[in-house]
Amino acid sequence: MPGQETPAHAGAMRLQVRGLTVRFGGLAALTDVDLDVADGQVVGLIGPNGAGKTTVFNAVCGLVRPTAGTVTVAGRPAPRTPSGLAPAGVARTLQGLGLFPGLTVLENVEVGALATRGGAHAHGPDGPARAPRSGAARTADPGDARTADQRDARTPDRRDDTAGRALRALADLDLADRAALPVGALPYPEQKRVALARALVAEPRLLLLDEPAGGLGAADIAELDATVRRVAATGCAVLLVEHHVDFVMELCDRVVVLDFGRVIADGRPDAVRRDPAVTAAYLGIEVTAR
Ligand SMILES: Nc1ncnc2c1ncn2[C@@H]1O[C@H](COP(=O)(O)OP(=O)(O)OP(=O)(O)O)[C@@H](O)[C@H]1O
Predict the structure, then answer these.
(1) Which residues form the ABC transporter domain (predicted)?
(2) Domain locations in the chain?
(3) Are 200 and 170 in contact (CB under 8 A)?
């Protein structure tokens, strides 16, 4: 079933999950789950509360041990510890914001850049993914929080420059002018973008987004949709867990539906939306809106 709906623009297989079973004591959180995400593809993972979505993410990130089955990233076994994620080209956002409220916006994103230092470009010859806004000027960062001396000492082209990379990631998400502010001073939608910038600064080849649209209004969701499409257009594989079904159906190339830890549907959004098993899993609620 996985991979059947891989669109023509999708590249090599980035994430491959086969027969994934995770038990917590007597509870089967996942049973025999198969899932594929190709380079350049956006796959949505949906399902009712407790269906096992977060457990899939945790298994991919090495935070839970599979009871059975395999998870591979670019054909290699998935990292077994979080420290292996960045070198494997995997970045993740958290269900909550997961930001450090005492740090500035820039420092929060630098945390993501530091985690990849020496590793961001170690994930193969296919190069890092970035998602510059179309037409965005890369030469001037109006919100550059560094001093003139710092700017002189670190040219924007030095890719190993942690602050420079973090600033570029912020600029890509229209947050450059927020760099020096305490992150807690930003409105919630901008904090969500900071969390996304922190994942993107790692220049991932596989991006895991945990409820990226949670708490956002229509305008911010439209912007998020455009951002995810830009990221995927760089060849990055994107897997997103999301309760906002309309957003998922609009954005994703493929949608995988979990219920009680099992895959009950995997296909194009329009087919999944019409699938009676999916409607039933959502307790008869039409799968058109949350
Ligand atoms: N560490 C754990 N120990 C025991 N049970 C767990 C653990 N993590 C998850 N579970 C259980 O596994 C099942 C799947 O949980 P999971 O969080 O993956 O679901 P989910 O689809 O992400 O839910 P939600 O949409 O509410 O976030 C649930 O029954 C949950 O209570």
Answers:
(1) 15-285
(2) 1-89+205-290, 101-203
(3) no
